[in-house]
């Protein structure tokens, strides 16, 4: 049976690229209009997997995804799906337009996160009075420029995949400030997916496992509660690789902490989680999954 995958659409987005990296092209894709729709698709089992953006090496958190993980897993009945894999996509932005010269551009479309990733290009190449318009995705930006026709007054900052999809000329390639700019994506599902281009034996060769958890603390009544939790990981030799927080939406100034660590749910990781349970109001394991080779 063909695997069905939901992702933040439309086709041609960097999330679509993450889908191809994880599953290849021999899957049924269901582009969604919002990240929240991806969560609904996987929860209702309309699809086998959902791929959502999680963080960017330049801009940091994709807060929409963090907040959705909080809303789906904290203070509610925990869903059956988990984080089962990750993908890293190198983000190379391109300037797509029918214009013959950049001086004739009046409007540029792109995703809101893109502007800060191409600030040097914009300051050096684009006139100050050019209107910059936020759209839902870089692929949508390309679609809009395509629909406006070849009058040469609009442009999109988007991917090469979108340029190919909408047959738009690329005036400038790889205009990102940081050539190592990368976005990390999470794969949500019920079972571990096989990495495209590998077999079961090669999968077993992977060593690093990432475990992702969320928890809330009663900071007001337990001074140093976060410190007490973190020291448990240290004492058990668990390497924490990321700590982030978002408002809990339960009460003002209470936060949900997102912590990722190297190790699967055994040995030091499991011992640490058992030890911190008394300190936590809620503790949820989002998933344990193979570290993508593209991380290195």
Automatic annotation (TrEMBL):
Q: Does the keyword Ubl conjugation apply?
A: no
Q: What's a Gene Ontology MF term here?
A: prephenate dehydratase activity
Q: Which GO terms describe its cellular component?
A: cytoplasm
Report the EC number(s), separated by commas if there are several.
Answer: 4.2.1.51
Q: What keywords would UniProt list here?
A: Amino-acid biosynthesis, Aromatic amino acid biosynthesis, Lyase, Phenylalanine biosynthesis
Name the domain of life.
Answer: Eukaryota
**Entry's CDD domains?**
ACT_CM-PDT, PBP2_PDT_like
Q: Which Pfam families match?
A: PDT (PF00800)
> Which ranges carry the Prephenate dehydratase domain?
4-190
Q: What is this protein called?
A: prephenate dehydratase
Q: Which organism is it from?
A: Spathaspora passalidarum (strain NRRL Y-27907 / 11-Y1)
């Amino acid at each position: 049976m063909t695997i069905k995958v939901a992702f933040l659409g439309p086709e041609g987005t960097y999330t679509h690229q993450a889908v191809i990296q994880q599953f290849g092209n021999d899957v049924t894709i269901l582009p969604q209009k919002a990240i929240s729709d991806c969560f609904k698709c996987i929860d209702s089992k309309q699809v086998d997997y959902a791929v959502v953006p999680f963080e960017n090496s330049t801009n940091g958190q994709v807060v929409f995804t963090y907040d959705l993980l909080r809303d789906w897993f904290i203070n509610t009945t925990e869903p059956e799906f988990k984080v089962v894999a990750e993908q890293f996509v190198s983000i190379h932005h391109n300037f797509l337009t029918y214009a013959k010269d950049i001086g004739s551009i009046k409007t540029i479309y792109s995703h809101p996160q893109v502007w800060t990733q191409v600030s040097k290009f914009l300051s050096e190449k684009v006139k100050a009075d050019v209107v910059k318009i936020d759209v839902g995705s870089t692929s949508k930006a390309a679609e809009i420029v395509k629909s406006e026709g070849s009058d040469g007054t609009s442009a999109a900052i988007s991917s090469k995949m979108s340029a190919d999809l909408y047959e738009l000329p690329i005036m400038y390639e790889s205009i990102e400030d940081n050539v190592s700019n990368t976005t990390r994506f999470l794969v949500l599902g019920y079972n571990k997916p096989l990495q495209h281009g590998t077999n079961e034996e090669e999968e077993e060769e992977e060593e690093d496992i990432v475990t992702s958890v969320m928890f809330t603390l009663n900071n007001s009544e337990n001074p140093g509660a976060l410190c007490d939790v973190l020291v448990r990981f240290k004492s058990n030799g668990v390497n924490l690789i990321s700590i982030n927080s978002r408002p809990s939406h339960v009460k003002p100034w209470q936060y949900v902490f997102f912590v990722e660590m190297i190790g699967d749910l055994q040995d030091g990781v499991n011992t640490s989680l058992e030890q911190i349970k008394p300190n936590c109001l809620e503790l949820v394991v989002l998933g344990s999954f193979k570290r993508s080779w593209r991380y290195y």
